[in-house]
Amino acid sequence: MALTRDTLLGIWAIDIADEFPSCEVIGCDLSPIQPTWVPPNCRFYVDDVESDWSYQPGEEFDYIHGRAMGGSISNWDQLYHQVFYNLKPGGWVEMQEYETAVYSEDNSLDNAPLIKKFQQVGDEASARFGKRLNVATSYKQQLIDAGFINVQDDVYKVPIGTWPKDPKMKQLGRYQLTQVLAALEPFMMALYTRVMDYTVQETEVLMAGLRAEFKNPNNHLYTKFHFVYGQRPQSS
Fold first, then answer.
1. Short-list 130, 132, 85, CA closest to 233
2. Which residues form a coiled coil (predicted)?
3. Helix (H, G, I), strand (E, B) or coil at 8
4. What is the Cα–Cα distance from 15 to 23, expressed in whole angstroms?
């Protein structure tokens, strides 16, 4: 049995349920945004993973998956404690997360001052709010501290834009640029206006500048995506 929490309309849960029809998959999210048609072995609950989990003895999971949860959790140690004790001995947890940091290897990030400011202000705003966005690099040690073994952190560079020469990376960068541009307003507007005291107009002007810098083909930008996973010991 698998439990998932992600921000992508339950796509992961539906795909896994389709691929493994003998597996029972439960998806959890704060809002009922998932499709109404799902595989018969897939169910969705509207719930807050930071609340006390109410699964009973005998309902432990073989696998627990979370994706893109940065900015939504106030107490990661408590969450991983609940994950640990709701896995079967030998079960696995996997967390997938982008860094909100942006990088370049040719110093072209220096030509994008708004993006550099965006990283700083966004991290500060989410930390003040109590649910930090840039948490991907913390996952590995937090899983170890929670008692998991065989913990790995597989890190992949993901280009932003179509600047790479490699066709596969160029296509990946095209998708990532679309995602980044679409994510700016949902991630920025509330934090900037409610936490950092920007006006709506100031935030909109900043977002317009950010979009221009991200779309500039001379800015060879990328981020990092972490696949972090670990196992509950058999003897625990």
1. 85
2. none
3. coil
4. 12
C-alpha–C-alpha distance, residues 94 and 107, integer Å? 33
Cα–Cα dist 168/182, whole Å: 22
B/e letters for 193-232, b = 16+ CB within 10 Å, e = fewer, are bebbebeeeebeebbebbbebbebeebbbbbbbbbbbbbb
d(CA 50, CA 72): 9
DSSP, collapsed to helix, strand or coil, labels residue 146 as: helix
Q: What is the pLDDT of residues 62-76, one digit of tens each?
A: 999 999 999 999 999
**Cβ(192)–Cβ(198) under 8 Å?**
yes
CA angle 96, 98, 103 (to 5 degrees): 150
> What pTM was estimated for this model as a whole?
0.91
Q: Which residue in the block uniquely carries the two structure tokens 């704060």?
A: 30
- Which residues, given as ranges, of the chain have pLDDT below 50? none
Name the residue type at position 15: D
Nearest alpha carbon to residue 30 among 73, 64, 81: 73
Residues 119 and 100: their CA atoms lie apart, in Å, by 7
For 48-232, CATH number?
3.40.50
